Amino acid sequence: MSDPTPNPNPEPTSDPTPEPDQTFTQADVDRIVRERVKREREKYADYDDLKAKASEKATAEERIAALEQEIQRANLAALRSRVQAKYGISDEDAELFLLGTDEDTLTAQAKRLADREEQRKQKNNVSPREGNNPKPASDELGTFTKNLFSRAAAD
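The structure assignment produced for this chain is given below.
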């Protein structure tokens, strides 16, 4: 390897005449700091306005989200009412049993509830022997007692 050849006219890398150190009085330092603070404050002068606008935007977005949820609940209530009326389901049953969030689910729930009600009506929910007083088996002692008292009452 070869050594680099030195440059015959090297350029100085720094200023050969050093600057004398500047000294500042406290008043000068205070003035410089005040100017710097003033520039920074001017730089962020509209920060409060921007912050207020951002807050308004967030509030508007929250209101939009709340209104969208309210619309969704109203649409669901209207759908539930249509399905309820179509299948003749009472308000109490609809509140308890129609819990779906789309038309297919609500229709399936309402149809099943209406079918169960129809099955209950077909069976009449009655015991077949209720109200009947079946004849007791013949009892010789009972027959003898009846005959005895009926003769005594006839005499």
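Interim note for the steering committee: The radius of gyration is 50 Å. The first helix runs from residue 26 to 43.
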